[in-house]
C-alpha cells in the first residue's frame, strides 16, 4: 500500500508542535505493517540545510507555481521517505514555518500552503514517475486544499483522509484569493472550500476528503458540539459517518528513559531510583531549592487554551504546600510575563524558561514528579504520553486525548492498582486547586506514588495499536473506491 502524507512540519526536520511528532513517527511504524508512506513537506531553510547532507533526486520542476519557481526533490532522511518542495520564495525566510520574526503570520500563507496542497494533488495524479499513491493523508489546514485539487484537477479517483490535530486553526482567508487558487468556480461552494463567504482550507479538506480523523476518540466526540467544534460542528455532524478518533502514540525509541542520551541518568520502572539524579540536575538547571517537595513541570505553549492563566494564578499555592514548579514554553506575552513574575517572587521555588528546548524537555520529564496540563481543550496531547513513559505523573483536565490516555487516581482505580495520574473536569481555578490538593495528599504516600509511576511507565503509549487502526481505515477507503 502506497500512502502520500502531506504535512507542513515533520520531526526531526522541522517542529513547532505535536503535528511534527505525529508526521515523523507514523511513517516509521506503518512501514512495519507493509505501508509505504512518503511525506511531502515544504523546503524551509532548516529543512534544506539538513537536506544538503543527504543524496536527493529532483523528480519535478515548476516554472510557475503560484508565481514562483520550485523544484520537488525525493530523498530519505533518518528513515523517512520524503518529497521536499523547494520553493525558496515561499519557504526560505527568516522566522518560523508560519510566522515572521515579529510573530505575525506571513501574509501570503494562503499561497504558500496552496502550493504545498497543489503539489500533493499532482503527486496523487502521477507527477512522480513510478510512484503513485493509493491514498493521500493530509494533516491540518496547511494541507487542507489537497482534496480539492485532487477532486477538481488531478486525482478525482484517489481516496483521501484529513486528520485534524487542532480544529481551532482553520486557515480561513478572504474570498478575494479564490481567483488565484487554480480551482474551477464550482469549488467555491458549500460543498467545496467556501466557508461563510470566505475560503476555508480546513473546512474544504473536511468537506471533500473521504474520511476525517481526529487525534483521540474523546476529541472526535467533542467537536460535534459548538463548544469544541469552533464553527465547524455543523459540517462534522453532517459527515458523522466518516469522522473517526484515533489516539496518537509516541516514538518509544526516542522517548525511552532506559536509553535516552539527553537525560542525566537512565532509569526504568524497575529501577526508579535513577530518577533522583535527573531531579538533581533539574534543580541545578533552574536554581531550585534542594528539598523533598514535589517538582511540578509545564512543557507547553503558554496560551489560554492550555490553561496557563490558571497556573500563573496558582503558583503561590504550589509553593505554599512545599512544591516547586518549572516551566518551559512560549506564547502569549502577558502569560509569559505573569510566569516570569512568579519566578521572581518565588526564587528557588519557581523556574521559567521562555523558549523551546528539546533536550531540556527530556530532562524535565525525567526529573519532575508531576506534569501539569490544565488545557481547556486538547485534541490529543503528547506531553502526557512522554510523562507516563518517564514516571512523571500527569495532572490533566478531563478533555480530548487527556481523558483517553490518563487513568484518574480515584478510589476505585487506586484500589485496583491501575491509576496513572490525576484528572479534573472543571477547568477553573477551583478545579485545578482541588487537583493540586489531591496530588499533594498522594505525594505523602510514597508507595502509592511509586505504584502510579510504574503503572504509567508500563502503559502502552506506542503507535502500534493506533497504526493498525489507520491501516484498517486506509484499506476501507481504498476498497470503497474500487482500487
Write up this protein:
It is a single chain. This protein is of the alpha/beta class and 483 residues long. It folds into two domains: 2-249 and 464-480, Glycogen Phosphorylase B (Rossmann fold, 3-Layer(aba) Sandwich); 272-458, Glycogen Phosphorylase B (Rossmann fold), CATH 3.40.50. Helices cover 39% and strands 18% of the residues. The chain contains 19 helices and 18 strands. The protein has helices spanning 18-31, 45-51, 88-91, 109-124, 146-154, 201-208, 217-222, 226-229, 233-238, 275-286, 308-320, 333-345, 358-367, 383-389, 400-405, 411-416, 429-443, 446-458, 464-480; strands at 2-6, 36-42, 56-65, 68-77, 80-86, 135-139, 160-164, 172-173, 194-195, 198-200, 211-214, 243-245, 295-299, 324-328, 350-353, 370-373, 393-397, 422-424. Strands 3-4-5-2-1-6-7-11-12 form a nine-stranded mixed sheet, with helices on both faces. The chain is globular and about 65 Å long. The termini are close together.
> What structural class do the secondary elements suggest?
alpha/beta
Name the poorly predicted regions: none
Assembly status = single chain
Q: Work out the number of β strands.
A: 18
Q: Mean pLDDT, nearest integer?
A: 96
Overall outline: globular
Topology:
Layout: E1 2-6, H1 18-31, E2 36-42, H2 45-51, E3 56-65, E4 68-77, E5 80-86, H3 88-91, H4 109-124, E6 135-139, H5 146-154, E7 160-164, E8 172-173, E9 194-195, E10 198-200, H6 201-208, E11 211-214, H7 217-222, H8 226-229, H9 233-238, E12 243-245, H10 275-286, E13 295-299, H11 308-320, E14 324-328, H12 333-345, E15 350-353, H13 358-367, E16 370-373, H14 383-389, E17 393-397, H15 400-405, H16 411-416, E18 422-424, H17 429-443, H18 446-458, H19 464-480
Parallel strand pairs: 1-2, 1-6, 2-5, 6-7, 7-11, 11-12, 13-14, 13-16, 14-15, 16-17, 17-18
Antiparallel strand pairs: 3-4, 4-5, 8-10, 9-10
Helix pairs in contact: 4-5, 10-13, 11-12, 11-17
